[in-house]
Amino acid sequence: MNKKIASWCLFDFANSSYSAVIAATIFPVYYANHIVGNVDGSGDIWWGRAISLSMAFVAMASPFLGGIADYARIKKGMMMFFTLMCVLSVGLFSLLEKGMVVTGFFLIVLANIGMECGFVFYNAFLPEIAEQDIRGRVSAWGYGIGYLGSIISLFISLFFIKQGHIEAIWITVALFFSIFSVPAFIFLPKDSYGEKNILSSAMKGLINTIKHIRSIWFDPQKRRFLIAYFIYEDGVNTVIVFSSIFAATTLNFKSDELIFMYLIVQATALLGAFFLAKSIDIKGPKKIVQITLCLWISVTIAAFFANSKVFFVLIASIAGLGLGSLQAATRAFYSLFIPHGEEAKYFGVYNLVGKSSAIMGPIVFGFLSSFFKSQRPAVLSVAAFFIAGLVIISTVKSYKNSEIP
Q: Can you give the pTM of this predicted structure?
């Protein structure tokens, strides 16, 4: 593994602290239950609004930011800017107190925008650093090492919870993210600053991106892929955003139990990502996407019937086996469509689709939870996203290396 690939994977290790602690387990429950109060579902609604607003911004901005980055050749600079934005916002979480609903809301929005926009440019480096015949496994390595970062950051968080210093967790996450991002900022390919005038670059990127989106939409294979991805990624994002809140609210998980569950999920996700890494290149990414979607359909339906903590942890650990594999295989599958030199632009569109899907899911989950005064109908509805995505992705042509257009 060369320095570029290693540092690229290490960036996933770095940002996994945000994904695990802020987006998925501890902070959603802290914000919904402590900052807002979630007896009547208000915490779910406020958290859903924050995630949906941030994802809406990311979805709309990503293609144009990608176009600017391609024209100006400033992928690394853009990645650094948004990473810093996320790190600073998370650090400010330590100042939040009970009742600071609106302040927390805006900090969540800023942190999530920084994280997700930075990920656009991170993804765009994949075709540049990895040859096509190993791209699937490199994609999986990134997710696998990311899960290792999640495990470590959760153990650190568990220590602070036991010490009664939960606010220190947010500072720790900010430091973890920033420190382990440094190798990527050093070793990934440098910016070449092809267009000096950033305003001119932005206008060119805007015009070209509009044309680019139109050309993708009229390509039937790309269109089907993106529609399928839009639908099943909605399910994935909704599960990630609300799984810990469901466990805490419906099944009465305590903070340390949530962390224990998430540690198990991250461990099984790590195993799944590395176990199937080579299979993505050998069997093809489409096949792995189909297999893991079938797995997610099964575990989502099972979660609807979960009445015990042990059963829910078992379901979650099985889901973890397919989490990294689904995301890695999807990223590798999409990379097959990308012409050289247009990586950021293509992954901007990829992010537009993926994050647009995250707008509706959290709102639907929050609405159903509040309407039925139960989170179970909301959980069951997520299975429909995976089923529809599986049906559509099965119609997308699976290219061999020699057939890629």
A: 0.75
What is the domain extent for residue 151? 3-403
- Tell me the Cα Rg of the chain: 20
CA distance 161 to 390: 40
CA 98 to CA 245: how far, in whole Å? Answer: 18
- Between residues 272 and 344, which one has the greater pLDDT? 272
Residue 42: CB partners within 8 Å, gap ≥ 6?
36
Beta strands in 126-216 (DSSP E): none
pLDDT tens profile 333-390: 988 887 777 777 788 788 778 777 666 777 777 777 777 777 788 888 888 889 999 9
Q: Distance between CA atoms of 216 and 108, rounded to whole angstroms? A: 32
**Are 318 and 268 spatial neighbours (Cβ–Cβ below 8 Å)?**
yes
C-alpha–C-alpha distance, residues 109 and 266, integer Å: 25
**Tokens standing for residue 75:** 């992928």
Backbone phi and psi for residue 71, each to the nearest 5 degrees, phi listed first = -70, -45
Q: Where are the beta strands (DSSP E) in 67-196?
A: none
What is the total count of domains within the chain? 1
Cα angle, residue 217 at apex, residues 215 and 218 outer, rounded to 5°: 65
What are 7's two structure tokens?
């540092």
* Distance of alpha carbon 121 from alpha carbon 5, whole angstroms: 15
Are 229 and 31 in contact by the 8 Å Cβ rule? The answer is no
Q: How far is CA 23 from CA 145, 287, 359, in A?
A: 18, 29, 15
CB neighbours of residue 189 within 10 Å: 12
Listed in sequence order, the residues at least 6 apart from 79 whose beta carbon sits closer than 8 Å to its beta carbon are 118, 121, 122, 184, 185
Q: What's the full length of the chain, in residues?
A: 405
One-letter amino acid identity for 300?
A: T
User: What's the CATH number where 258 sits?
Assistant: 1.20.1250.20
| Local confidence band at 405 (pLDDT 50, 70, 90 cut-offs) | very low
